[in-house]
Amino acid sequence: MNTLLAQRKYRLAIRLSTDTAKTFGLWAAAAYALLQAVQGVFRVLTGFDADYGNYLVGFLPLLLLAISWVNFVKAYPSAIGAGMTRREFGTAYALFSALLIAAGFAFTQLIVIVAELTDSSAYDGFYGAAPIDALTRAAVYVTAGAAAGAIIVRFDRDLVKGTLAGVLIAMLLLRQIPLQIAASEAPSGDGDLVFFEFPADGVPLAPLDAVLTVAFVLIAWLALARAPMPDKKA
Amino acid sequence: MSFSATLRDVTLKYRDGDALADVNLDLEAGKIYGLLGRNGAGKTSLLSLLAAFRKPTSGEILVGGEPVWENAGIVSRVALIREGGDFDDSDTVKAAIETGQIRPGFDTAYALKLAERFELPLKKKVRELSRGKRSILAAICGLAARAELTMFDEVHLGMDAPTRDAFYKELLAEYMDRPHTVILSTHLIDEVANYLEEVIIVDKGRILRHEELEVLQDLGATLTGPAAAVDDVAAGLEVLAEQQLGGTKSVTVAAFGPGTRERAAAAGLEIGPVGLQDLFIHLTEPSRNGA
């Protein structure tokens, strides 16, 4: 009985991972295969050598964020209702998140490697193409999803939880702007107009994402620590 | 082993007021309790605290002698089944049942046996179930949890009368087979009264009464007999309910003392126990509690 109790957080992590792999994982793989097929047909018919895989690489972080957010909000009531503690759920979700980050990293790298094999230059300068970028990018979006999910379950009032989750996501999506402005206004900067492009030159996104990842993990953990069970709608 | 439960000076505040205020309560292990209260009285809040679904604003909650909050060894053996259950609606019924395996004591075979008996479609999604079937799924998961403290909060809602009866019988059979602590929170008071050993009445966030069922029922009586004789004995007493059929009358009265009992017996009236529901209505009457 004690072993079962000690291992249940791992079983929950495996269950969440398996369910995600069987749904979103298969859909992403199918979407990639479809894009490759369309790309191949276009190449044969028109000679146009496009790489549509970059659409997937571009949308992958948002997909990871959505998976992480939705899974948190759905799994939390089931787990607490079935007699789990928040600490156990947090550990299970951390393991699931680690696997999700690894899957996001592996998927991005797969697309980049396949593109390189076909001599595509579509990922030159693309944030997320280099291995370290692929890792930090996946990590920051997955943990942002978990933090947003934790905020949703932590607060009762729709206005509060909606605003806080919105601020968190805005922080994530606009994260490079303060750095761009700071870089421009620094003594070594040109002090000129700032053109927002993504990724911006001179903005170290990978370290920034690593820092934000730690911040989002802390937010998720703090929100989860006192999170109540969501009320049942009357 | 079944769990006792203790609340010491427990307060739970929401932003619009106190759900519970300075609640003290001791529940012995191995009994079936009825938790009664009007809408918004604090029943669900009380159960949520016992299941560590919420943290109290202040006070101490012990289950099985240990603090319940974030205590895996305890909460894994406490089950609070809320109306409709806490399921992932996109799961199939079978998957929802298997989610119960998070509890080390969960009896999947028993749950599947009950699912077959109550004709639950295992392959259907939870969101596709009718309200009644969803309530049955929740009740099944509660029974199969094999918890040491099991609480059912209005879980019968949507069930038809035969299903409710079958559920209560199954609950009793499970209780006889494996003694544990059960708390039933319900508005169908007379329907569960026969199963209860003790009754807790919550009113406006406080414990109004916590008594054995018999003690509570002795607070009043039902007098049945010729209308004139009944009216004579009941004169001056607080009448909670009355019915008349032809010349025969039946009244439920509160504060039924020994003297009145002797007069009623002398008048040849039949003296029965007071209905729990009538008593509950009387005890929680707003005018009675200064509301």
TrEMBL record, chain A:
Highest taxon of the lineage: Bacteria
Q: For this UniProt entry, which segments traverse the membrane?
A: 21-42, 54-72, 93-115, 135-155, 162-183, 203-224
* Keywords (A to Z) from UniProt: Membrane, Transmembrane, Transmembrane helix
Its name, as the record gives it, is: Uncharacterized protein
Automatic annotation (TrEMBL), chain B:
- Alphabetic keyword roster: ATP-binding, Nucleotide-binding
| Cited Pfam families | ABC_tran
GO molecular function, a single term: ATP binding
Coiled-coil regions in this chain?
none
Top-level taxonomic group: Bacteria
InterPro entries registered for this protein in UniProt: AAA+_ATPase (IPR003593), ABC_transporter-like_ATP-bd (IPR003439), P-loop_NTPase (IPR027417)
Residues in ABC transporter domain copies: 5-229
Gene3D superfamilies named in the record: P-loop containing nucleotide triphosphate hydrolases
Extract the PANTHER family matched here: ABC TRANSPORTER, ATP-BINDING PROTEIN, SKFA PEPTIDE EXPORT ATP-BINDING PROTEIN SKFE
- Name-wise, this protein is ABC transporter ATP-binding protein
**The organism of origin for this protein:** Glycomyces luteolus
The top of its lineage is:
Bacteria, Bacillati, Actinomycetota, Actinomycetes, Glycomycetales
